[in-house]
Design goal:
alpha/beta; binds SN-glycerol-3-phosphate; TIM Barrel; globular; about 290 residues
Length: about 290
């Protein structure tokens, strides 16, 4: 059962529907699931197939992704399910929109993931205007978060998620939790149409800090959700303090949310690196 007083929605970050059922069983609830190309490529079913030396054809891999999503949807029919478009640095907004339209037919609660790049934001703005729901991924800066807010202005609450990647910022020596804190503070001046989804959550401290900061959603791998369940689904205590160790703090940037989205700086090396890695993992399971 969801702990009383927990406002943050809890999602599983996984490309494996077996984990969905396991985690739902352990927590007694699950508000949604996020997937990405790397998680699908590394799912046990995909690995099993590759072990037999049989890579997917391009249509087969899309069918496989659809099957995974539909299995997840039968386990958590009320849950939000994030499905990521294939994109590399050359993918056009139009190509992303085509994927979004198709993926949205897979399940009624689809949230289409687009990268925070110029083409990704163009695609997201068009998708939102069509009434689709989106999850903007690979967020590493407040500027990117402000751009997402501006590009999706007019969307209804629940239609837009923003995924800041906590663990990957930590890996680079910067305090990823500061990014969550800064974006929540910045968005508090807005109309609430973008929900903050803490992603790349690697530790219980990330998990508890995100709850404490009031993140709308957390997506976490099964390892973390298992740990939370073993600990009795506790909420962070009142006096919870996040010890950041040697991580470099991220200063709050005073930004307007109402500029045209093209005016914000969308660049971050980890966005480019993340995009390339998602594409590489996806291509690695497809026959040449
Ligand atoms: O789903 C995106 C995100 O959660 C990825 O996490 O651990 O690969 O940085 P990670």
């Amino acid at each position: 059962m969801k702990p009383v007083g927990l406002k943050t929605k809890i999602f599983l970050d996984s490309g494996d529907s077996v984990e969905t059922a396991e985690i739902l069983g352990k927590l007694g609830f699950l508000d949604g699931q996020t997937t990405n190309p790397s998680l699908i490529a590394k799912s046990p079913e995909s690995l099993q197939r590759l072990k037999s030396g049989d890579k997917f054809t391009a249509p087969e891999v899309t069918d496989f992704y659809q099957t995974v999503i539909q299995k997840v949807a039968t386990i958590i029919p009320q849950g939000s399910i994030s499905i990521e478009v294939y994109a590399d640095e050359h993918t056009s907004a139009e190509a992303m929109i085509e994927q979004a339209k198709s993926f949205s037919t897979w399940t009624p609660r689809a949230q289409i993931k687009f990268p925070i790049t110029t083409a990704g934001l163009q695609a997201a703005a068009a998708a939102v205007a069509m009434g689709l729901s989106v999850n903007m991924t690979l967020c590493f800066t407040q500027q990117q978060a402000a751009a997402v807010y501006a590009a999706t202005a007019g969307a209804v609450k629940g239609q837009v998620y923003l995924s800041p990647f906590v663990g990957r910022l930590d890996d680079s020596g910067q305090n990823g939790i500061d990014l969550i804190k800064n974006i929540i503070q910045m968005y508090s001046a807005g109309d609430g149409h973008v929900e903050v989804l803490a992603a790349s959550v690697r530790t219980m401290d990330h998990f508890f800090s995100s709850i404490k900061l009031g993140a709308d959603i957390i997506t976490a791998p099964s390892k973390i959700l298992n740990e939370w369940s073993v600990g009795g689904l506790n909420l962070p205590p009142q006096d919870f303090v996040y010890h950041t160790g040697n991580l470099q703090p991220l200063a709050y940037e005073q930004l307007s949310l109402t500029n045209p989205w093209q005016e914000y700086d969308l660049n971050h090396p980890l966005t480019a690196k993340g995009l390339a890695k998602f594409a590489e993992d996806w291509n690695s399971i497809i026959k040449k």
